[in-house]
Amino acid sequence: MPFQRIVVINGPNLNMLGKREPGIYGARTLADIEAALRAQAADRVALTFRQSNSEGELVTWLQEAGLAGDGVILNAGAYTHTSIALADAIKAGGARVVEVHLSNVHAREAFRHHSYLSPVAVGVIAGFGDRSYHLALEALLTLPENPKS
Length: 149
Ligand code: DQA
Known about the structure:
Elements: E1 5-10, H1 22-25, H2 30-41, E2 46-51, H3 55-68, E3 71-75, H4 84-93, E4 96-101, E5 123-126, H5 131-141
Parallel strand pairs: 1-2, 1-3, 3-4, 4-5
Helix pairs in contact: 3-4
Pfam families: DHquinase_II
Protein name: 3-dehydroquinate dehydratase
Binding site for substrate: 75, 81, 88, 102-103, 112
């Protein structure tokens, strides 16, 4: 596993989880998800958990994670579908990112079908509710040191 640390970065409106459209996004809060991820990470890897509604802050965190060599689990919310700046930040810092979504964005409105982030992500996990984050963590924890191996 190539990471000392994994940073979980959540974008706009994900602070509202639990209250926000629970039929789509589930009943768990972001704090619930953080606690469950910390239990999963246990002593296998250090975990940092962040959320912002501001695109610029997300850009800075993605740059920093890349430069530090940290793995990233990223749910960029609606910025997934709009933000060239986030894609550029991933490329600029060289972060290895798993893009996650609680909902299956491909089964929803057409404007959610395109992601600026998928082309610069290691992989994408969508549609498994809060389990999307756990699957992403497992994917990063089992990523080969040498991505080509
Ligand atoms: C989301 C899907 C996005 O389309 C939406 O804007 C979100 C959440 C998800 O986790 O399913 O805010 O990223």
